[in-house]
Amino acid sequence: MDEMPLEEELLEKVARGDKSAFTALFHRYQRRIYDIAIRLTHSTIIAEEMVQDIFTMIWLKREDLLKVRDFNAYLFIVTRNEAYRTLRNLSTRRARLRELEEEEVTIAHNNVQQQLLEKEYAALLKTAVSRLPFMQQQVYHLMKEQALKRDEVAERLNIKPETVKRHIAQAMRNIRAYLLSHPDLIIALVLLRPANEIFFPGH
Q1: pLDDT averaged over the chain?
Q2: DSSP letters along 142-202, please?
Q3: 20 to 30 A from 75, CA-CA: which of 104, 126, 167, 201?
Q4: Alpha-carbon dihedral angle through residues 24, 25, 26, 29, given to the nearest 10 degrees
């Protein structure tokens, strides 16, 4: 009986720019968006991306929440549309993902608060890497920290290039999954960064 009034009150607060309310909204609905996305795309990587993309959109267009009468239906439509858009451009997106996997992680240091956030992120990423299986760690360090190409890593570890490709892909999935288990960091990134600087590690 109280679910709708509480939801409407939460949406009104987010629309007014209440960051605490946005955090509560994220915690309440992130799993629902992920479940819808995974059913539509059958891809954990895309579904994980969509969680951040959709909440970024919700925050940037938060005033529109005042017009929403059924937030569950709104979330389903937004997630469905985002999934279809992603799938229509999947070939281009895959090429972009491959490019980004070859790049070093770069995060702008705009102010002291963001620098502190970067330190927190670095520590979290280091923990995520330390939890990887041994071979995934080796491949990750060589490709991401020493900037070696796939063939160079394969030669150094005496394995096939396709095996290197599989290990780095698995490592990235494991790192993403670990970071998604710490949603407060994602929320802080959404709130602190300009829209064109939103970044999700491992892409």
Answers
A1: 80
A2: IIIIS---HHHHHHHHTS-HHHHHHHHHHHHHHHHHHHHT-HHHHHHHHHHS-GGG---TT
A3: 201
A4: 120
Compute the chain's Rg from CA coordinates: 19
Q: Please, which pLDDT band fits residue 54 given cuts at 50, 70 and 90?
A: very high
Give the type of residue at 138: Q
Res 68 pLDDT > 60:
yes
DSSP string spanning 61-82?
Answer: TGGGGGG-S-HHHHHHHHHHHH
Q: Give the CB-side neighbour count of residue 8, counting CA atoms within 13 A.
A: 8
The single-letter code of the amino acid at 62 is R
Secondary structure class of 131 (helix, strand, coil) = coil
Is there a contact between 91 and 82 (Cβ–Cβ < 8 Å)? no
Please tell me what DSSP assigns to residue 125: H
Average pLDDT over residues 179-202: 60
167-180: pLDDT as tens digits: 999 998 888 888 77
Non-local (6+) Cβ contacts of 3 within 8 A are none
Q: Say what the pTM is.
A: 0.45
Separation of alpha carbons 94 and 183, rounded Å: 25
The number of C-alpha atoms within 13 Å of 132 and in the hemisphere containing its C-beta is: 26
Find the helix or strand (DSSP H, E) in which 53 lies. Answer: helix 44-60
% of the chain exceeding 70 in pLDDT: 74
